[in-house]
Specification:
Elements lengths: L16 H15 L11 H8 L3 H13 L3 E4 L3 E4 L1 H7 L23 E2 L12 H12 L15 H15 L8 E4 L2 H11 L6 E5 L3 H9 L4 E7 L2 E2 L1 H7 L3 E4 L13 H11 L6 E5 L23 E6 L11 E4 L5 H8 L8 H12 L2 H31 L2 E3 L6 E5 L2 H13 L2 E2 L1 E2 L14 E5 L5 H12 L8
Parallel strand pairs: 3-14, 5-6, 5-8, 8-9, 9-10
Antiparallel strand pairs: 1-2, 4-11, 6-7, 10-11, 12-13, 13-16, 15-16
Helix pairs in contact: 1-3, 2-3, 5-12, 6-12, 7-8, 13-15
């Protein structure tokens, strides 16, 4: 124990200072905050810390010693009495169960998880990341100071080169803003974009996007999808001003938006000066069927706000996301960011910059694509007998890290019942629509990125074993 910080009432003559110290330590012992045999601060140290006389502390300690709250050890100091603590401590209250939303479902409640938000972290390049992090740590004291609220220029320059080469993004480092997650960047955009403008979001779509925008008191229009992505005719009819889309791999359907549809949406955005498209480049790195289509932003950098994150390509805990803004929005953004600080550690930003510049990121993504491709092939091959026997169709397998299995309604209900009974986490497509309905209830989402092959086999057998087609 270093010291106690006690709010002493120095003007209260009814309770002397020594008694206030005595009562404080008594309460700390009775409450269990001071443990048995825990050392108390020395009398001289506590007197100096509280700026009171040594005699005052000596008197308080003498009272505690006489009443058995503490004991003294020669040449060592004062300690909390074990006998007193064991005799007087009340029974501990049972721990409060956290709300279901705070429970780590993949670790506690479920035996197997076909989760859509996980990656294979066992393949993370720990040695390389640690080596680069150590280099950054010893590079100098400058990184201890507050950095640019838009993000360190070192990382923005690295991102600019990387995005130009691998995603055909047309930008300069000054157009990039770095933040701790897509959700944070969306909150910044909510401050930049005039509040009277309406957002259009995909339906079905990513629930967190809707939640952040609704939390920012935005008016939303839910736009249905066709086989090419967000419907331009429905978008035009909605009267929305900002379209939020995931063209590289629509979540949750896995649709890859073709070039013709992208051009249609750009044409929509150019009809009015204040219209923009937010391109969430979700999962673009893991198109497992071939080379990804270049970014929408590269087709029109004046009308597209580009967003992406490293939580999928590296690890969910690396909370580094970024957006590329059209030049017309830069002044308002700089003015707004002047009252903010960067939400990402400068050490982590500079480590990532070296990871990108050294070619490690590209090599890691290529390794992960190979791993995920093989896992998906294994998954599909193991599912094949069940798919054929049970009249199940697969979609979404050309991009992304999950599959969609559509089956007869009665079969879907039975599989979902088995999932709950066997503690297997999976999702229905219906969960991703803005409004509850029967749409997508017979389509199940099965993520495979964070699940080992043996677990995939066991979970599939538990879900589909001994089932038959037709009425259940």
């Amino acid at each position: 124990m270093n010291n106690f910080t006690i709010n002493l009432e120095r003007e209260d003559r009814k309770i002397p200072l020594y008694e206030q110290i005595y009562l404080f330590i008594c309460n700390e012992i009775k409450s269990g905050r001071l443990k048995a045999d825990e050392k108390l601060p020395s009398k001289r140290s506590l007197a100096a810390h509280l700026m009171i006389s040594l005699n005052t502390v000596e008197t308080a300690y003498s009272m505690l010693l006489q009443e058995g709250y503490i004991y003294s050890a020669p040449r060592s100091g004062y300690y909390v009495s074990r006998a007193f603590v064991e005799f007087s401590l009340p029974e501990k209250e049972p721990p409060i169960e956290p709300p279901a939303s705070e429970t780590r479902t993949s670790e506690t409640r479920f035996k197997y998880g076909f989760l859509t938000n996980t990656v294979d972290t066992s393949s993370f390049p720990f040695k390389t990341w640690a080596k680069l992090g150590k280099e950054v740590l010893y590079s100098g004291q400058s990184l201890l100071s507050i950095g640019d609220p838009s993000g360190d220029v070192t990382l923005r320059e690295s991102l600019c080169k990387y995005l130009r080469e691998f995603r055909a993004v047309d930008c300069s480092p000054s157009q990039i803003v770095i933040g701790a997650g897509i959700e944070y960047l969306l909150m910044l955009l909510n401050r930049i974009i005039p509040h009277e403008l309406t957002f259009a979001v995909e339906d079905p779509g990513y629930g967190k996007t809707r939640a952040v925008l609704l939390g920012g008191r935005r008016k939303l229009s839910y736009i249905p999808l066709d086989h090419e992505g967000m419907s331009p005719s429905c978008l035009s009819a909605s009267g929305a001003d900002i379209a939020y889309i995931t063209p590289s791999c629509q979540f949750p359907t896995g649709i890859i938006m073709p070039v013709a549809r992208r051009l249609e949406l750009i044409s929509w955005a150019n009809e009015y000066e204040y219209r923009y498209i937010i391109e969430d480049d979700y999962n673009s790195e893991f198109n497992l069927m071939g080379k990804p289509i270049p970014s929408l932003q590269g087709m029109d950098s004046d009308k597209v706000i580009y967003m992406s994150t490293f939580s999928r390509s590296l690890a969910p805990s690396i909370r580094i996301a970024y957006m590329v803004l059209p030049k017309v929005l830069l002044k308002d953004t700089r003015d707004m960011l002047s009252s903010y600080s960067s939400t990402v550690s400068r050490f982590e930003q500079n480590t990532l910059a070296r990871f990108i510049d050294g070619g490690y990121l590209n090599r890691h993504i290529n390794r992960m694509k190979t791993l995920y491709r093989r896992r998906k092939e294994f998954f599909l091959e193991y599912l094949k007998p069940y798919l054929e026997a049970l009249d199940i169709t697969v979609s979404g397998d050309t991009a992304g890290l999950h599959l969609l299995l559509t089956m007869p309604k009665a079969l879907a209900e039975e599989v979902y019942r088995r999932a709950e009974a066997n503690k297997i986490k999976l999702y229905r497509l219906s969960e991703f629509y803005a409004e509850e309905s029967d749409r997508g209830r017979n389509t199940l989402l099965l993520g495979f990125a964070g699940t080992e092959k043996e677990d995939l086999k066991n979970a599939v057998d538990l879900l589909f074993g001994n089932l038959q087609s037709g009425p259940i």
